[in-house]
Amino acid sequence: MADTQLPEPALTEIRLTAVLHALADPIRLRIAAELAQDQGELACQAFDLPVTKSTSTHHFKVLREAGVIRQCRRGTHRMSHLRTADLETLFPGLLAGILGAHLAEDGRKD
Amino acid sequence: MADTQLPEPALTEIRLTAVLHALADPIRLRIAAELAQDQGELACQAFDLPVTKSTSTHHFKVLREAGVIRQCRRGTHRMSHLRTADLETLFPGLLAGILGAHLAEDGRKD
Questions:
Q1: B105 interfacial to chain A (CB closer than 8 Å)
Q2: pTM of the entire structure?
Q3: Which site from A89, B10, B70, B89 is most exposed, i.e. has the minimal number of CB atoms within 10 Å?
Q4: Are B100 and A93 in contact (CB under 8 A)?
Q5: What angle do CA A97, B36, A99 make, to 5 degrees?
Q6: Are A97 and B102 inside 8 Å of each other by CB?
Q7: What pLDDT digit, counting tens, does each position of A25-36 carry?
Q8: Does the CB of A15 have a partner CB in chain B at under 8 Å?
């Protein structure tokens, strides 16, 4: 069965404030950081998040609708990956800067 | 009369998600961009914002409480400036990256 891509903004529809809003949440920032670390695609189930399934689904939707991630259905799985190239085209260095800041902050907590 | 500094988070209290949330709004992003361009301090009245005075005051407060700007009262004025050095210490390159992305987006609108 072919993948079904979930609705997302086109490149020209992605707005900086929506991207910042999407990443201004600890859970969503963590999802983006894990996807960046994996450099590939991950099923929602692969994330060990401290929230309910419906809250988790909501967070993935906010990231997708902001243009931060792309999601597709594959069988019973919903796969996600970062739209790294699209974001880099629009806002060079932004995603790396935010994820770098997240790592720096996480490092200070240890 | 001496300046009175308004309450703000200490350096170690500044959180990345709060900074992103503060900048995830077109008006607040514009305030930060204007302060960055000016490289100094500006009175709230110096901004020609398309919102009421109380909404504007709220936006400045969100930026201050997130640690993005510092504000002080000077006579009847409330002066603001970016906490550029503090943010650079915590999250190197982040503020410049976000403001650069804002300029890039603004440029595409023209």
A1: yes
A2: 0.93
A3: B10
A4: yes
A5: 10
A6: no
A7: 999 999 999 999
A8: yes
